Sequence to fold (175 residues):
Amino acid sequence: MKIIVINGSARKGNTLTAINAFVKGAGEKNEIEIIAPDKLNISPCMGCGVCQCHKGCVAKDDTNPTIDKIAAADMILFATPVYWWGMTGQLKLVIDKCYCRGMQMKGKKVGFIVVGGASTDNIQYELIGKQFECMAEYLSWDILFSKSYSANGKDELAENADVMEELETLGKNVK
Ligand SMILES: Cc1cc2nc3c(=O)[nH]c(=O)nc-3n(C[C@H](O)[C@H](O)[C@H](O)COP(=O)(O)O)c2cc1C
Fold:
């Protein structure tokens, strides 16, 4: 499969650690590219609607090449830290821009990874999970997995051998 990972974190921390563990498992049998929105120039969606009767977004930045890659993928992995009970702005920026190719985003396989400082019984994971579920229902996505982890310090998740193994196994088993 062609897998696109969208990394919602700008720091080399827990989200990237989680992504790398998944990629370790999935890398052998799949073609994987990680999109780092913080390294790109993607303007916020203006809601102008021109994309609905025009090929792609009107913005002359990294939007269209990024959305092209996502539209061409078989699977999308959304990975984000929790910022203020939600996904990060970096990830949301890219998701909002998917609007310009909405129907080409249909029927994908998807995975969700959320990492927050609070323990996993905090309502934030349910809120973010529900938002992802609504997107999945709207675009007929097949949710392969949805995982929430608690880690705060930059290297904390890496110290959790069970989580590392779980993510690697998830990667190995995607199809
Ligand atoms: C701006 C900001 C807002 C945050 N908001 C929350 C929050 O609402 N809930 C939470 O549990 N952790 C929150 N955190 C902590 C991060 O989710 C946590 O440190 C996470 O491990 C960061 O992931 P990273 O290492 O991949 O960047 C916040 C951190 C930042 C920088």
